[in-house]
Design brief:
The chain has one domain: Aspartate Aminotransferase, domain 1 (Alpha-Beta Complex). The longest helix is centred in the N-terminal third of the chain and has 21 residues. Strand 2 and strand 3 form a beta hairpin. It is built from 5 helices and 6 strands. A 6-stranded antiparallel sheet has the order 1-2-3-4-6-5. Helix 3 packs antiparallel against helix 4. It is of the alpha+beta class and 136 residues long. Helices cover 43% and strands 21% of the residues. It starts with 6 loop residues before the first helix and ends with a helix. This is YdhG-like domain-containing protein. It holds the Pfam family DUF1801. InterPro entries: YdhG-like.
Length: 136
């Protein structure tokens, strides 16, 4: 079952080209699945910097944002995390990376669902995982 987007977010999604929009909706569903599987608490869907953003419960993880350009979908995270560096190590064959803030996926390529769900789980639990690492 697909969770409806808030109206302001839905309006932004409608501005994406149809093929990109379809792929963004699939990625969005994976983000919600990741939130459910990691027990991060309620996920808030809103706009940040004009882009759909997914905020986990406070102190659980970091915000994920969805963007696009041309025929690419882009998954953004906060640039001061080490997530993109970790994603680059794990999933370089599936994505192009932008510095320390984003993973790009051409909309026309097969969707690496397992990789995307894992990346979303890593982001949504980022602070929790960081706390566990510091305690070790």
């Amino acid at each position: 079952m697909t969770i409806p987007s808030p109206e302001n977010v839905a309006v932004v999604f409608k501005t994406a080209p149809p093929a990109v929009n379809t792929r963004l909706m699939q990625i969005r569903d994976l983000i919600f699945e990741a939130a459910s599987s990691t027990d991060t608490g309620p996920l808030t869907e809103t706009l940040k910097w004009g882009q759909p953003a997914y905020l986990p419960a406070k102190r659980a993880g970091t915000t994920l944002r969805l963007g696009w350009n041309d025929a690419k979908c882009i998954l953004y995270v906060h640039c001061q995390t080490d997530l993109v560096a970790r994603w680059r190590t794990l999933y370089a064959e599936h994505f192009q990376f932008e510095g320390n803030r984003a993973a790009h996926l051409p909309a026309a390529t097969p969707l690496p669902t397992d990789a995307l769900q894992h990346m979303a789980e890593m982001a949504l639990t980022y602070h929790r995982q960081k706390s566990r690492s510091a305690a070790s």
